[in-house]
Write a structure and sequence with these properties.
It is found in: Cell membrane. This protein is mainly alpha-helical. 70% of the residues lie in helices and 0% in strands.
């Protein structure tokens, strides 16, 4: 009989033996950080993270847990229209929150709409963050006429109402596209429309930090050894600007979701066959005074819960990352 200990690979045994302790060490190190301690001792932050995770998980699993696909017109049955919620005497299973005037299940529409709203809000924040960080670093590090041009463009955008810029961008984009591409590109157009007026806040914050950091000794030393400017900006200046940017991005995530809902409510957002939460609220608002209150109330409650949880997380991050409050 062959000896098992002789046939085993010592490197494999060492790798298996050290993988689990490394994972435990990293988790233990995370639990020892001030951020984790602040999070676990902040009940509202824990509640907000759990609520947002629940909303995101149910939106992600919407095709599995919902009784119908609200985007599939063939699955809509008109004689199941205007059914009240399940606790009402006229309610029917499986329409827990009732149906709208087209026989669309409200719960299914909310979960699918939440997925669209979350994706558009997150993507618009990422785009605005990338543009704002890049332009802010360049303006603060280079200075001169480059700084003046970037900041003057930002001042022009700040002088105009946010919603007006977003409506203008969506109107121009939809008018320039062929009829067959308007609904297909509705989400990317919304992302750009929300991101364009949003990058200025990130750029101004990063620019102020970059102007301070570029005069410090470690940046001057990097220049003396001829480190490339883009490496100085990315590896030396940017890490010192991330704390206020992280807080601003978290708070702007909720504003981006509200902006998407506002644009959709005004009719320049997502189309009715791809309803977001704003589209559902716009459609339900037409039947609010006819007794079909559930068509508008439940999407509005879902939108409020998402924005509330994001704002609570942003407030916690602002307090946890503020060195004056430690």
């Amino acid at each position: 009989m062959a000896d098992i200990s002789m046939t085993s690979d010592p490197k494999t045994i060492a790798t298996d033996a050290t993988t689990e302790p490394v994972r435990r060490t990293r988790f233990a190190a995370l639990r020892q950080t001030d951020l984790w301690h602040s999070f676990t001792n902040h009940p509202s932050a824990v509640f907000a993270v759990c609520l947002l995770a629940l909303v995101a998980l149910t939106a992600l699993l919407a095709p599995v847990i919902t009784p119908q696909d609200p985007y599939d017109l063939a699955s809509l049955v008109l004689w199941n229209a205007e059914i009240p919620p399940i606790w009402n005497a006229e309610g029917q299973w499986p329409y827990l929150l009732g149906t709208d005037t087209q026989g669309r299940d409200i719960l299914s529409a909310i979960l699918y709409g939440s997925r669209i709203s979350l994706v558009i809000g997150f993507a618009s924040v990422i785009v605005a963050l990338a543009v704002g960080l890049s332009l802010g670093l360049i303006a603060g590090y280079v200075g001169g006429w480059v700084d003046n041009v970037i900041m003057r463009i930002g001042d022009v955008l700040l002088s105009m109402p946010f919603i007006l810029i977003a409506i203008l961008i969506t109107a121009v984009a939809t008018a320039s596209l062929p009829a067959g591409l308007k609904d297909v590109l509705a989400a990317p157009i919304l992302i750009i429309a929300i991101a364009v007026p949003s990058w200025v806040q990130y750029a101004r914050t990063v620019r102020a930090s970059a102007m301070v950091e570029r005069k410090k000794e470690y940046v001057m030393a990097a220049r003396l050894i001829r480190v490339k400017p883009w490496r100085i900006m990315l590896h030396h200046i940017l890490p010192n600007c991330l704390t206020p940017i992280l807080v601003a991005a978290t708070l702007n995530f909720g504003l981006a979701i509200l902006s998407e809902a506002t644009l959709s409510f005004l009719g320049v957002g997502m189309p009715p066959d791809q309803p977001s939460l704003g589209t559902l609220i716009r459609i339900g608002n037409q039947y609010l005074f006819s007794g079909l209150w559930w068509i508008v109330v439940f999407p509005a409650v879902q939108l409020c819960l998402i924005v509330l949880s994001v704002n609570m997380i942003g407030d916690w991050l602002r307090d946890a990352l503020n060195p004056k409050l430690r």
